[in-house]
């Protein structure tokens, strides 16, 4: 990667490149999702202390996905990465009901950010492989997603571990990038 | 004209003459860029005497001793083995760049956590935290050789000037409309130049804090800039595939170096400012005549993008680092590749010579930095320990300290 490649990914992307920001609380499964997207080994994933960037080809687009660490103390730095974001993907641990309020709060704050205004948001209701996982519909309701009116949004249940639902989510991403970039 | 004193400059080797003329004290330098450990000192002193009237027969012996000192300095620390002395959990987010002051007594780190920190090299103690930027601190510099000021350039579009001694912020330079990604003090330490993703570079007055000039002309992001040795010209390298040479006193374009067919990754002058070396994503590097802006040579051979390039202090050699995981060393005079540095298991994003010019330091995405013999290409040391890729690495002026900064949020001191 190197600093220079980061600068190249920073500039406003050409038409066929999409800048995707992957956010969510710690342990939501962002890095696992990133690695699943890049078809990489997901057996040894540690908490992200900074960020990871991967580029994946999908439906004629080059998706530059930025996975940003979600621990509380580094959340104030999320805004370092807002510039030129085409799509926001917000990942939720559907089995961690204790933190639904916290994750809802963080999402609400993101949707208030000026630099992310009108940016389409995909919410992954992750960890559906766990028996205790709340269904996407319940999360949508709990987070009042239906009140989002200033942008297109979608909630998609998935398991970053098994890969189920991930492609459906990315299809939605490509479709909405299409709409935006055209 | 009366010679008052003789001073030494170790790297690149040179003798400074302080002399008096019409009651005025002046200086000039005798550059000994070709000096190497095998140079015949007697013959060189004779040559100096012939060319420089201030060096009279009575001074010859003194000059001979000085040249021998310079010769010894070129070999100093050449057998040095680097050992890890400190791991600093410097920041809570990845580091960007690191920089040392000239003596090596302290160094600075920039980070995604929006701070720049000043560290004591010997103790590893944190001396100051330079806080105030609202986004990533990407590019940082000391005003060497003085080392009393620090400049920081940020993704928040501003550059700040700080006291290295107290950590006080003297000025915030505002005006760029996008991220600042490269900066440099001029050699006199009267100006700071900043290069930005907004396609412009700006020169700022250190005393007044005012903008002096905006250098407008590039069609895409500026990602590299450097002054020449005198400070009268500056070059900017851009994602628009070109490098522009500017006159710093008028902000006029002197030359546009057109030839690369992809983004520029680095651009530097050699010491005597006769040449410019540029590296590009087009997998080549080019040598240019700095006086007329003409391309002298295109060096091919790398299988992937060139991410960094540099001259040694004297300009005798230059080196390129590539995303293909190798680096190459070239002789400036012949433009022949004299060695290939093979061994890294990932792209090499940083390369620099030690001031003596016999060693190279590379930093890679394989999480290691390596020390190489510049002439044979042999890997002498692998500096291992970082747990994520290395974003920056640098030698001090004596060539016996290395600082590495990593995406793993730490920096390491190797002595």
TrEMBL record, chain B:
Identify the InterPro entries for this entry: WD40/YVTN_repeat-like_dom_sf, WD40_PAC1, WD40_repeat_CS, WD40_repeat_dom_sf, WD40_rpt
Q: Which GO BP terms apply?
A: cerebrospinal fluid circulation; determination of left/right symmetry; establishment of localization in cell; heart development; outer dynein arm assembly
Extent of the WD repeats? 88-129, 130-172, 173-214, 215-256, 257-298, 299-340, 341-382, 383-415
Q: Where is the protein situated, by its record's location annotation?
A: Cytoplasm, Cytoskeleton, Flagellum axoneme; Cytoplasm, Cytoskeleton, Flagellum basal body
Write down the superkingdom of origin: Eukaryota
One GO CC term of this entry? extracellular region
Q: Pfam families given for it?
A: WD40 (PF00400)
Question: Where does the record locate the signal sequence feature?
Answer: none
Q: Which UniProt keywords apply?
A: Cell projection, Cilium, Cytoplasm, Cytoskeleton, Flagellum, Repeat, WD repeat
| Record PANTHER family | F-BOX AND WD REPEAT DOMAIN CONTAINING 7, WD40 REPEAT PROTEIN
Q: What is this protein called?
A: Dynein assembly factor with WD repeat domains 1
Q: What organism does the UniProt record list as the source?
A: Octodon degus (Degu)
């Amino acid at each position: 990667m190197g600093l220079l490649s980061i600068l190249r990914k920073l500039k406003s992307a050409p038409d066929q490149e999409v800048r995707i920001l992957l956010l969510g609380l710690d342990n939501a499964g962002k890095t696992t999702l990133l690695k699943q997207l890049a078809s990489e080994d997901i057996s040894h994933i540690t908490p992200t202390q900074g960020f990871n960037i991967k580029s994946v080809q999908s439906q004629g687009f080059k998706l530059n996905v930025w996975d940003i660490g979600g621990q509380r103390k580094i959340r104030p730095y999320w805004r370092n990465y807002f510039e030129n974001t085409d799509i926001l993907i917000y990942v939720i641990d559907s089995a961690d009901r204790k933190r639904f309020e916290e994750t809802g709060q963080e999402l609400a704050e993101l949707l208030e950010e000026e630099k992310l205004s009108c940016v389409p948001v995909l919410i992954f209701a992750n960890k559906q492989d766990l028996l205790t996982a709340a269904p996407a519909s319940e999360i949508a309701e709990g987070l009042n997603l239906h009140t989002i009116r200033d942008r297109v949004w979608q909630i998609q249940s998935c398991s970053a571990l098994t890969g189920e639902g991930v492609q459906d989510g990315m299809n939605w991403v490509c479709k909405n990038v299409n709409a935006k970039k055209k | 004209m009366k010679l008052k004193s003789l001073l030494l400059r170790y790297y690149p080797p040179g003798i400074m003459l302080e002399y008096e003329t019409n009651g005025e004290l002046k200086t000039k330098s005798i550059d000994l860029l070709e000096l190497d450990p095998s140079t015949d000192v007697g013959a060189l002193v004779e040559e100096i005497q012939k060319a420089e009237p201030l060096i009279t027969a009575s001074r010859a012996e003194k000059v001979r001793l000085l040249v021998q000192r310079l010769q010894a300095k070129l070999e100093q620390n050449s057998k040095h083995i680097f050992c890890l002395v400190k791991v600093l959990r410097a920041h809570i987010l990845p580091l960007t760049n690191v920089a040392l002051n000239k003596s090596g007594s302290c160094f600075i780190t920039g980070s995604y956590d929006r701070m720049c920190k000043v560290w004591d090299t010997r103790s590893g103690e944190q001396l100051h935290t330079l806080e105030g930027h609202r986004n990533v601190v990407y590019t940082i510099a000391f005003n060497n050789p003085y080392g009393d000021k620090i400049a920081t350039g940020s993704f928040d579009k501003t550059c700040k000037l700080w006291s290295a001694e107290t950590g006080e912020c003297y000025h915030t330079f505002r005006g760029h409309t996008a991220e600042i990604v490269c900066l440099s003090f001029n050699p006199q330490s009267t100006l700071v130049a900043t290069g930005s993703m907004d396609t412009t570079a700006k020169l700022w007055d250190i005393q007044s804090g005012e903008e002096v000039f905006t250098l407008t002309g590039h069609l895409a992001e500026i990602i590299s800039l450097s002054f020449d040795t005198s400070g009268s010209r500056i070059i900017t390298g851009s994602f628009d595939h070109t490098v522009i040479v500017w006159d710093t006193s008028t902000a006029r374009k002197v030359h546009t170096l057109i030839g690369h067919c992809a983004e520029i990754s680095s651009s530097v002058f050699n010491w005597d400012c006769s040449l410019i070396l540029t590296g590009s994503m087009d997998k080549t590097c080019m040598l240019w005549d700095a006086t007329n802006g003409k391309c002298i040579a295109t060096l091919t051979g790398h299988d992937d993008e060139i991410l960094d390039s540099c001259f040694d202090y004297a300009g005798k050699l230059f080196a390129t680092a590539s995303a293909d995981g190798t680096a190459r060393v070239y002789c400036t005079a012949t433009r022949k590749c004299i060695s290939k540095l093979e061994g890294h298991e990932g792209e090499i994003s940083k390369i620099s010579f030690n001031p003596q010019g016999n060693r190279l330091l590379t930093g890679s995405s394989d999480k290691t930095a390596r020390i190489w013999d510049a002439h044979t290409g042999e890997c002498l040391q692998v500096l291992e320990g970082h747990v994520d890729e290395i974003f920056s690495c640098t030698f001090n002026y004596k060539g016996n300290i290395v600082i590495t900064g990593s995406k793993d949020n730490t920096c390491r001191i190797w002595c």
